[in-house]
Design goal:
This protein starts with 21 loop residues before the first helix and ends with a helix. It contains twelve helices and 14 strands. A hairpin with a 7-residue loop joins strand 6 and strand 7. Helix 2 runs antiparallel to helix 12. It has one domain: 3-Layer(aba) Sandwich (Beta-lactamase), CATH 3.40.710. 52% of the residues are buried. The strands form four sheets. The protein has an eight-stranded antiparallel beta sheet with strand order 2-1-14-13-12-11-10-9, with helices on both faces. The chain has a two-stranded antiparallel ribbon with strand order 3-8. By secondary structure, it is an alpha+beta fold.
Length: 382
């Protein structure tokens, strides 16, 4: 989600560190990349050269579908990145969650101005936290002040923690109780701070309003109607089925740990969905194209305010990012233990771009990924 992963103040920083080639960091011989001159392949190669094990991207617009890959599906192998491989999309999950909430709002079953206390009595309480003062809108826009539970999850913060707790199952209630041990960062509506706890609470509210789990609602309201055949809500199942590349996390060291297997229940509502570049492109095109939400709800979702922590504007489960060619696009970054993705779409969903890599990367990686999305969407910014 903004991810249930290590918080980084430089999440969208455009200044870079020196590029680290994967051949140098792993000691493995570099896999020769084909000499191609198309812009998408060059941009994917540039991301790979910053130190990621593998990179894959897809760009779509009416009548076109372009893909490019670089690197391998795992260290120590020459297997190429799988075509349309599955990966953990991290915080891009938040867009799915916000879309379900807004559908329920459009049906008159709840309001963005409802308080957390109204739907989850006594859940947000203690140490200065007060659910009666926090609205659903503030959860979705990260203006609640509630602390992020991510730093408390051992599997996400060290190699030893990952090895010890990668198969541990969390309940949403347990995650929120953990966050409630800390005082809020600010009073509701008086600041902006990224917190995965907000979306854990949103998933709990979806369950309370609908009488069905967050996963069931996402499947029936988004995944099935859009025909996202390679997208899933894995729950506590720790493995990725079907074609996929392995993911690697360094946890702040020089050594990568294979972190592909993970019980992602700690990211329910916030970062647990598994998908592909193709399905994510379909999702964002349908969302901004008005196929999932009525105009009033889509307007709410895309009404943004400054998010200084990220250096962008943020709506309800969507970031708005300036385009170098003028205007802006909507999308979301995602990261969950070694899978890092950027997904973006033009304002009306006419052109989409999704790219992901299979290791943490660095500031240069982030810069190269945002550059790819920007340049590809600028080819038609309508």
């Amino acid at each position: 989600m903004h991810v249930l992963a290590r918080r980084r103040r430089d999440l969208l920083a455009l200044s870079g560190l020196a590029a680290v080639l994967i051949a140098a960091s792993t000691g493995m011989p570099a896999v020769a990349k084909p000499q191609r001159t198309d812009p998408l392949q060059q941009q994917v190669d540039a991301i790979h050269d910053t130190g990621t094990v593998g990179v894959s991207a897809e760009v779509t617009s009416p009548g076109t579908h372009d893909t490019a890959r670089a690197g391998t599906a795992g260290t120590g192998t020459r297997r190429p990145m799988p075509r349309n491989g599955r990966f953990r999309i991290g915080s891009a999950t938040k867009t799915f969650t916000a879309a379900v909430v807004l559908q329920l709002v459009g049906e008159g079953r709840m309001s963005l101005e409802d308080t957390v206390e109204q739907w989850l009595p006594g859940v947000v309480r203690g140490n200065g936290n007060d659910g009666s003062r926090i609205t659903v809108r503030q959860l979705l826009q990260h203006t609640s002040g509630i602390r992020d539970v991510g730093p408390e999850i051992a599997a996400l913060n060290s190699a030893d923690g990952y090895r010890a707790e990668r198969f541990r199952t969390y309940t949403p209630e347990e995650l929120v109780r953990t966050a409630m041990r800390h005082t809020p960062k600010f009073s509701p509506g008086k600041g902006w701070s990224y917190s995965n706890t907000n979306y854990v609470l949103a998933a709990m509210i979806i369950h309370k309003v609908s009488g069905r789990s967050w996963a069931q609602e996402v499947r029936d309201r988004v995944i099935r109607p859009l025909g996202l055949r390679d997208t899933s809500t894995p729950g506590t199942f720790p493995f990725i089925l079907g074609p996929h590349a392995h993911a690697y996390a360094t946890f702040g060291t020089d050594t990568g740990t294979d972190v592909t297997a993970l019980d992602s229940s700690m990211a329910v509502g916030a970062g647990s969905i598994i998908s592909t570049t193709h399905d994510l492109n379909r999702f964002y095109a349908a969302l901004l194209g008005g196929r999932l939400l009525a105009p009033a709800q889509l307007d709410e979702m895309t009404a943004t305010e400054p998010a200084p922590e990220l250096g962008v504007n943020y709506g309800l489960g969507l970031a708005e990012i300036p385009l170098s060619c003028g205007g802006s696009y909507f999308g979301h970054r995602g990261e969950l233990l070694g899978y890092v993705t950027w997904a973006g779409t033009t304002r009306h969903g006419t052109r989409t771009a999704v790219v992901y890599g299979t290791s943490d990367g660095n500031r240069d990686t982030q810069r190269a990924m945002t550059t790819l999305v920007d340049r590809q969407l600028c080819r038609t910014s309508s």
